[in-house]
Amino acid sequence: MIFDGASSKHGELIGVAGCTGVTIANLTVQNVKWNGIKINSDRGAQRVTIHNCVLHNIWQRGVKAPAVPQDQEEKLSPRDCRVQFCLFYNDRPKRFEDDETDTEKTYNGNYIGGIDVKNWDRQAHGVTDVSTALSQSLNVGMATIATEMGQERFYTAMRSFGFGQRTGIDLPGEEAGILRMPGDSDWSESNLATNSFGQGVSITPLQMITAVSAIANDGLMMQPRIVRQIVNGDTVTNAQPMAIGRPISAVVAKEVTTMMLRAVAEEGGGVPLAQVPGYTIAGKTGTAEIPSPTGYESGTSIASFIGFFPADDPQVIILVKLDRPDEYWGSVVAAPVFKTLAERLVILLGIPTDDIRRQLQASGGRVNER
After folding, report:
1. What is the separation, in whole angstroms, between the first and last Cα of the chain?
2. What is the torsional sign of CA 331, 337, 339, 342?
3. Which CATH class is domain 248-362?
4. Of residues 239, 202, 237, the one with CA closest to residue 224
């Protein structure tokens, strides 16, 4: 049996109330602007089983229990309710026009691949552009982009940046990381959403810095190396730069660099603890949950910041990664380490400030050549 809410004015299609020990089975519920099935434990629904159902194009939650006041949780929260062997999927992410009650500020497309995708601050940020989604680390925005791209384009892009495979650096023991792909036994549609903001994947620091270096290098990804020169008696062999791919065009690389610049320097936001006076920094924070056998560790993180500078003529890229730091957020604990390193490197490498560099270039001078 198919329940289709396309022409319904109601936000929820099936409400379960005043019953105990009920099984709802073999239904397809689709095209609902809010929730497909709502178990109303506050109205006497207990021991409800949702079995072998298909929840399709539901723009909030496939199966929902209502929020219950904390002082009534013991009395009203669902007891012995189960969802078994159900398929949750959407043909596309939620769009602004799918719910006429949404406003520009409250819009929050958050139900993708059978899971709730929430922003780090648990708030709806409304309709945003890509640059804002990046600078504000909006999970919902990233997941929406990934689902609009689709599986093939998204995972082709991930592989083209080197994720899920070794870089081939001249060191033993390199790991490939973890990138589950469509067709793998442990991949599900929800991975398309969560992978977009870094959850459900495992990336090595070397993979990350190699990938972001491609953005700094006009879209051309280079082979990382440790050995610069081999001297064997009178024979000297210099390692030659070698490109290993072009995941994005130079035009796109410039656009992403501008977004990363805004992510650091945006007035009233950005990452002030990573800013270096006199230099434009293109960068991005990272705050990753740490998996455990029972889910994710509570109250701790892998905090990071990656950035390159000068943003319009990159000479240096730095990745700071801190496991289980005292502070939770990368913008708070990793960004200051980046700044300290950057301030020392511009002196050590003789990199002039942006203003001086541009003056030299305007007068025909040559700078940042090595």
Report:
1. 70
2. negative
3. alpha beta
4. 239
16: amino acid identity, one letter: V
Axis crossing angle, helix 189-196 with helix 139-149, rounded to the nearest 10: 130
How far is the C-alpha of 235 from the C-alpha of 62, rounded, in Å?
68
Report how far Cα 10 is from the mean position of its chain's Cα atoms: 33
d(CA 148, CA 144): 6
Q: Quick one: pLDDT band at residue 74, thresholds 50, 70, 90? A: low
Domain positions in the chain:
2-89, 116-203, 248-362
pLDDT in tens, 189-224: 889 989 999 999 999 999 999 999 999 999 999 999
Q: What topology is assigned to 116-203 in CATH?
A: Beta-lactamase (3.40.710)
Can you tell me whether residue 271 is helix, strand or coil?
A: coil
Structure confidence by residue, pLDDT tens digits, 140-180: 889 889 988 989 999 999 999 999 999 999 999 999 999 99
